[in-house]
C-alpha cells in the first residue's frame, strides 16, 4: 500500500475510535461532575490534574523511542529496533522511579500552605495525590509499548485499546454514582487501576506480535544506544515537564487565590478541549511515523511536505469543531452539563483558542525531532511554559481576574513558542518561513476569522436556543468550507482530495 493510502487507512481507524470515545468521554465527565459535585471535581482537577496531562507526557516521551524505531525502520534495520526497545525499557523504568520519588516528596510542600482545599477534604485529596503518582509511574512504564505500536502504524489495535479504556472509565463513573464510600477516593482508585490495566494489555500484545518487544536486558543493553536515547528522551522529558509544571502550576496558583470551584471550571474546559483535539490529532498519529521514516530514508523534501500539510490539516480539522463551539459556548455547556461551573464558559473559550494556535506548528516538533536536533526546542519550550507562573502570582495577588491565566497562555503559545519552533525548523530542517506563512498560517487564520464573523452575526440577532445553535453552526461552517477549499489547499492537496473522494465513491458503488 502507498504511503498516502496507509495514512488514510490508519486515520480511518483512529476516527472510528474517536467517534465512539468522544461521546463516551463527554458523558463520563457529566456523570462524574454531578456525582462528585463542583468542589470535589475541582479537587480532582487540581490535585490529580497530572492525570489529564499524562497523555501529553506519554506522547512526548514515546516520541523518543518511536523516533529511533521509525528511523531504524526507514533504514531497514530490524536488529537495531530490538536493541532500541530494550534500552528504552531500562530508561523509562528508571525515569518512572525517579519521578515517583520526586512527586511523593513534593506532597509535603503542596499540602502545607500551597493548595487551597477545605479542611474536611484534605485527607481525600491526599489519597487522590497518591493515586496520581501511581498512575504517573505506570504511564511512564507504558511508553515503550505505545512507541512500538505507533512505530508499526498499528492504529487498529490502538483504536480498540482506546475504546476499551473509555468504556472502563464510563463503568467506573456509573459505579461511583451509587457508591456509599467516599466517591472522590474511589474515583482515584479506579483511575489508577485503569492505567495499570492498559499497561498489562499493551505489554502482552506487543510481546506476542512484535519481535523487537522481547525483553532481554542482559543481551541487548548497549551503552551508545542508551546514551543516544537518553539524550533525546531527556530533552523530550525536559519539554514535557515544563508543560506539565506550567499547566499544573497554573491550576495550583488559581486554586490558591480563588479556591477549588475555579478548578472545576478549568477542568471542564480541559476535558472538552482534550476530546475535541482528538478529532485533529488522530491524523497525526498516522502521520508522525511517516515523517520520521522519510528522514530516516534521507528524503527531507518529502518529510517537510508531509509536515506542513500535517499542521495545516490538523488546524483545519480542529477548527471544524472549535469554531461553532467558540460561538455557542454558553448554550453547548448547558446542553452538556446540568450545572455549569462559574467561569467555565470563559475558560473553555480560551482553551479552544490556545489549542487552535498550537495546531499551527503541531507537526514541526516531530520534524525537528526526526533530525535528532531536539535539545534547543525542548529547553526553550520548557522554560517558556514554566516562566508564566511567576507572572500569574503577582497578577492574582493584586486582584486580577482568573481569565488572565489564559490571556498570558494564549500570547505565550501563539507567538513566543510558535515563533521559536518555526525558527528551529528553518535552522535544522531548511523550512522556508515565507512558504509556511503563505501556505499554512495565512489560509488557516483567514478562514477561521471570516467564518467566526459570519457565525457571530447569527449569534447577535437571535435568542439563545437550539435554532440559533443550528443556524450559527450552519452559516459559520458553510463559510469555513468554502474558504477552506478556495484558499487553504494548494493544487497538489486539492488533487489528492479529489482523487481520494473519487476512490471512496467508486468503492461505495462497487459495494452497492
UniProtKB/TrEMBL annotation:
InterPro entries: Poly_Biosynth_Transport. It is a multi-pass membrane protein. It is found in: Cell membrane. Keywords: Cell membrane, Membrane, Transmembrane, Transmembrane helix. Its main location: membrane. The chain crosses the membrane at residues 12-29, 41-61, 90-115, 127-148, 155-178, 184-201, 313-333, 353-370, 377-397, 403-423, 435-460, 466-489. It comes from the Bacteria. PANTHER family: PSMA PROTEIN (PTHR30250:SF26), PST FAMILY PREDICTED COLANIC ACID TRANSPORTER (PTHR30250). This is Polysaccharide biosynthesis protein. It comes from Bacteroides gallinaceum.
Amino acid at each position: 500500500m502507498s504511503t498516502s493510502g496507509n495514512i488514510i487507512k490508519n486515520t480511518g481507524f483512529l476516527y472510528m475510535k474517536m467517534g465512539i470515545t468522544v461521546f463516551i468521554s463527554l458523558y463520563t465527565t457529566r456523570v462524574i461532575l454531578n456525582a462528585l459535585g463542583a468542589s470535589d471535581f475541582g479537587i480532582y482537577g487540581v490535585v490529580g490534574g497530572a492525570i489529564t496531562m499524562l497523555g501529553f507526557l506519554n506522547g512526548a516521551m514515546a516520541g523518543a523511542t518511536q523516533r529511533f524505531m521509525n528511523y531504524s525502520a526507514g533504514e531497514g534495520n530490524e536488529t537495531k529496533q530490538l536493541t532500541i526497545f530494550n534500552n528504552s525499557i531500562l530508561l523509562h523504568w528508571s525515569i518512572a522511579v525517579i519521578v515517583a520519588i520526586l512527586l511523593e516528596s513534593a506532597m509535603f510542600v503542596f499540602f502545607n500552605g500551597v493548595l487551597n482545599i477545605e479542611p474536611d477534604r484534605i485527607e481525600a485529596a491526599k489519597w487522590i495525590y497518591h493515586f496520581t503518582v501511581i498512575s504517573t509511574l505506570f504511564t511512564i512504564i507504558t511508553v515503550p509499548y505505545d512507541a512500538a505500536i505507533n512505530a508499526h502504524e498499528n492504529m487498529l489495535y490502538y483504536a480498540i485499546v482506546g475504546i476499551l479504556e473509555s468504556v472502563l472509565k464510563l463503568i467506573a463513573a456509573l459505579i461511583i454514582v451509587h457508591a456509599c464510600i467516599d466517591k472522590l477516593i474511589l474515583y482515584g482508585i479506579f483511575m489508577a487501576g485503569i492505567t495499570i490495566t492498559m499497561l498489562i494489555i499493551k505489554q502482552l500484545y506487543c510481546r506476542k506480535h512484535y519481535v523487537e518487544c522481547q525483553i532481554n536486558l542482559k543481551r541487548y543493553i548497549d551503552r551508545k544506544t542508551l546514551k543516544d536515547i537518553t539524550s533525546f528522551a531527556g530533552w523530550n522529558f525536559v519539554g514535557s515537564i515544563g508543560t506539565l509544571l506550567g499547566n499544573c502550576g497554573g491550576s495550583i496558583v488559581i486554586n490558591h487565590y480563588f479556591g477549588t470551584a475555579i478548578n472545576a471550571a478549568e477542568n471542564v474546559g480541559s476535558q472538552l478541549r482534550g476530546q475535541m483535539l482528538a478529532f485533529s490529532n488522530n491524523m497525526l498519529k498516522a502521520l508522525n511515523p511517516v515523517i520520521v521514516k522519510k528522514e530516516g530514508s534521507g528524503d527531507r523534501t518529502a518529510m517537510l511536505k508531509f509536515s506542513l500539510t500535517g499542521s495545516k490539516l490538523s488546524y483545519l480539522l480542529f477548527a471544524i469543531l472549535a469554531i461553532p463551539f467558540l460561538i455557542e459556548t454558553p448554550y453547548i455547556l448547558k446542553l452538556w452539563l446540568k450545572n455549569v461551573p462559574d467561569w467555565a464558559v470563559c475558560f473553555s473559550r480560551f482553551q479552544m483558542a490556545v489549542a487552535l494556535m498550537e495546531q499551527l506548528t503541531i507537526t514541526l516538533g516531530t520534524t525537528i525531532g526526526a533530525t535528532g536536533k531536539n535539545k534547543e526546542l525542548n529547553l526553550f519550550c520548557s522554560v517558556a511554559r514554566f516562566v508564566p507562573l511567576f507572572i500569574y502570582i503577582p497578577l492574582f495577588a493584586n486582584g486580577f481576574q482568573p481569565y488572565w491565566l489564559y490571556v498570558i497562555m494564549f500570547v505565550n503559545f501563539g507567538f513566543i513558542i510558535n515563533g521559536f519552533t518555526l525558527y528551529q525548523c528553518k535552522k535544522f530542517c531548511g523550512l522556508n518561513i515565507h512558504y509556511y506563512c503563505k501556505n499554512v498560517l495565512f489560509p488557516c487564520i483567514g478562514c477561521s476569522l471570516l467564518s467566526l464573523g459570519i457565525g457571530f452575526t447569527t449569534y447577535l440577532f437571535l435568542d439563545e436556543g437550539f435554532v440559533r445553535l443550528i443556524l450559527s453552526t450552519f452559516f459559520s461552517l458553510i463559510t469555513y468550507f468554502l474558504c477552506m477549499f478556495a484558499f487553504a489547499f494548494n493544487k497538489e492537496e486539492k488533487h489528492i482530495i479529489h482523487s481520494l473522494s473519487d476512490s471512496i465513491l467508486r468503492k461505495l458503488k462497487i459495494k452497492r
